[in-house]
Design the sequence.
């Protein structure tokens, strides 16, 4: 396999030289009926490349694109790893070999927001500057695949376990995605799964957690248990 | 011919109408999409006539078009069909065919099924070889994707299983396809036409099965893979009696004893640059003239190509393609002195092709290509490899330069 080393090294070097470090110029939005607030980058890619019509948890999603332009270019390159032209070629190959269909294409951020708001299961993207704070639309946090950034938890706060649920023996585990700032404070919390009432308590608690400082922002997945009283 | 141009014009008009008025409509609450394409080419060669056209005089007998409809009946179930028609010199002759049709159900990302007439996954471009608008080149490397014998590999009537599996430890994805079905060649394809001087085929086809495995590697834009195709084909018709050539036609049959293709490939995309390379080995051991003779053919072919998008609407590309063929006959043909062909350095046993191309996208739907081919060799006179004795009765010159101009439209 030694013969493979040189071409792979060249490929890796070409990739490094040609890759442009894109800031995230777009945000991913979805119809508010979607329960999750977070989507992983691989799941997002599979939905838009028609490798899957649903998330890993079975939630069905239907992608909508924006027409060629800076927003579409940024999304295609950052999240799908393709130029606009390559993406068009990809969809056409699916359509003309009977393996897929052309996704819906809309003309502007405003049209995408309106369509996503009105269509159950729709997922799209708009520029970061676009006003997507509209009834029926939520902005999704896109997390890298298997982000397992390890940061030491310095201060934690126990969540309040509602007495009513304790008495009824209702418990479980709440899964949360935390965005931790370089300073160590928790900037953002997104619910991944669990009882919604317990989740409210968990979110209040984790927002008070303090992690050790680091060079950059991290995204962590935490599980907050609520063991039911027996 | 006039009728065909009218048909092509109708497709283009419908296409324009469709583009202007959206390409979908609703049936029983389900969205049905309609898409189509058409292409027209012109080839001029300085010496040998190529691809069954009189290219030494310049030929525009290079036309194809297709139309499809499809609909997602559910988010996992896609149904559809595509009709295709083409003419390439003496081949095709505008006999429309069902290009693909059926249903595709994707249970999970890692498992789906397709059934009906299904495009065959073989290498990077077998299933899309008719779709000129998808690539920078007017002609794919003919060593690996011979357009005159597209029927041999383009589709099967049967079923596929397919899927994509993510590997752990960030090692990328594996995509697999496995299929089995029936191949049925048009009698207007290259192989029947080549032999039409002494064999008249009424049918040609048979069992086809195989698979493809491709690895989307952890290096962004790099994909490598391998395909295997096995066939059990039979051809029937009538032929000149090789033992008594003036004695009239006799029933003819041939069948394959071994017929397989191995193909290995890699593709790399980085920014505006695309590099591909493929190697194909095709072996066919067949019994011909009802078993009186045998014919063993071994084809080894490969190419390396590169394409770069200079501007949003301008691409340039180049490839180098090598094709080499050896043949051994047995039985009556050997007894009659048909010699083995094993020296691939001879022009009659190879075709080496250097190609440069430019593609301009006039708009999102319409493109124009200009391409130059510089070929050495002409392949075997009794094997369909682009140069046919019917168009070259005076024999073959060793080198052929070709200018190909092609335009295509899709919606």
Sequence:
């Amino acid at each position: 396999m030694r013969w493979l080393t040189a071409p792979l090294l060249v490929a890796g070097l070409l990739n490094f030289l040609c890759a442009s470090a894109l800031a995230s110029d777009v945000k991913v939005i979805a119809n508010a009926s979607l329960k999750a607030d977070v989507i992983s980058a691989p799941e997002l890619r599979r939905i838009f490349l028609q490798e899957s019509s649903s998330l890993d948890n079975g939630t069905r999603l239907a992608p909508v694109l924006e027409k060629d332009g800076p927003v579409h270019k940024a999304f295609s390159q950052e999240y799908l790893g393709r130029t606009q032209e390559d993406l068009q070629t990809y969809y056409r190959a699916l359509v003309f070999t009977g393996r897929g269909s052309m996704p819906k294409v809309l003309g502007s951020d405003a049209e995408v927001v309106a369509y996503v708001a009105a269509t159950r299961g729709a997922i799209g993207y708009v520029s970061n500057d676009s006003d997507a704070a509209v009834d029926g639309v939520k902005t999704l946090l896109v997390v890298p695949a298997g982000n397992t950034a390890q940061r030491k938890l310095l201060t934690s706060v126990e969540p309040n376990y509602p007495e009513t649920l304790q008495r009824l023996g209702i418990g479980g585990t709440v899964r949360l995605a935390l965005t931790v700032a370089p300073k160590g404070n928790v900037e953002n919390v997104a619910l991944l799964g669990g009882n919604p009432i317990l989740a409210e308590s968990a979110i209040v608690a984790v927002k008070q957690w303090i992690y050790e400082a680091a060079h950059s922002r991290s995204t962590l997945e935490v599980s907050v248990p609520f063991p039911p009283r027996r | 011919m006039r009728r065909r141009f009218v048909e092509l014009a109708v497709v283009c008009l419908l296409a324009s109408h469709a583009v202007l008025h959206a390409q979908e409509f609703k049936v029983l609450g389900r969205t049905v999409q309609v898409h189509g394409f058409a292409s027209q080419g012109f080839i001029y060669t300085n010496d040998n006539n190529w691809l069954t056209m009189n290219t030494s005089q310049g030929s525009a007998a290079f036309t194809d078009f297709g139309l499809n409809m499809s609909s997602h009946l559910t988010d996992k179930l896609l149904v559809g069909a595509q009709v295709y028609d083409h003419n390439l010199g003496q081949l095709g002759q505008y006999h429309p065919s069902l290009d693909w049709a059926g249903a595709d159900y994707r249970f999970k990302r890692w498992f789906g099924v397709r059934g009906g007439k299904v495009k065959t996954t073989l290498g990077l471009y077998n299933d899309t070889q008719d779709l000129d608008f998808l690539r920078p080149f007017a002609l794919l490397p003919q060593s690996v994707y011979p357009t005159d014998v597209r029927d041999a590999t383009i589709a099967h009537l049967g079923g596929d299983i397919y899927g994509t599996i993510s590997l752990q430890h960030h090692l990328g994805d594996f995509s697999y396809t496995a299929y089995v079905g029936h191949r049925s060649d048009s009698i207007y394809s290259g192989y029947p036409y080549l032999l039409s001087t002494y064999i008249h085929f009424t049918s040609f086809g048979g069992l086809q099965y195989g698979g493809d495995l491709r690895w989307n590697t952890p290096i962004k834009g790099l994909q490598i893979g391998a395909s295997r195709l096995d066939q059990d084909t039979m051809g029937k018709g009538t032929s000149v009696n090789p033992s008594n050539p003036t004695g009239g036609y006799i029933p003819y049959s041939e069948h394959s004893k071994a017929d397989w293709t191995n193909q290995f490939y890699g593709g790399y995309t980085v920014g505006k640059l695309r590099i591909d390379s493929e190697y194909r080995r095709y072996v066919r051991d067949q019994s011909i003239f009802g078993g009186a003779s045998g014919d063993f053919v071994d084809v080894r072919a490969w190419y390396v190509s590169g394409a770069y998008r200079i501007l949003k609407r301008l691409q340039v590309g180049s490839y180098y393609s090598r094709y080499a063929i050896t043949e051994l006959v047995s039985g009556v043909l050997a007894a009659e002195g048909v010699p083995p062909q094993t020296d691939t350095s001879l022009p009659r046993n190879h075709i080496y092709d250097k190609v440069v191309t430019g593609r301009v996208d006039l708009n999102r739907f319409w493109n124009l290509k200009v391409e130059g081919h510089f070929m050495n060799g002409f392949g075997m006179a009794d094997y369909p490899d682009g140069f046919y004795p019917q168009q070259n009765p005076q024999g073959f010159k060793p080198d052929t330069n070709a200018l190909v101009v092609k335009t295509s439209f899709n919606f």
Q: What stands out?
A: Confidence is low (pLDDT under 50) at residues 15-22 of chain B. The radius of gyration of chain B is 22 Å.
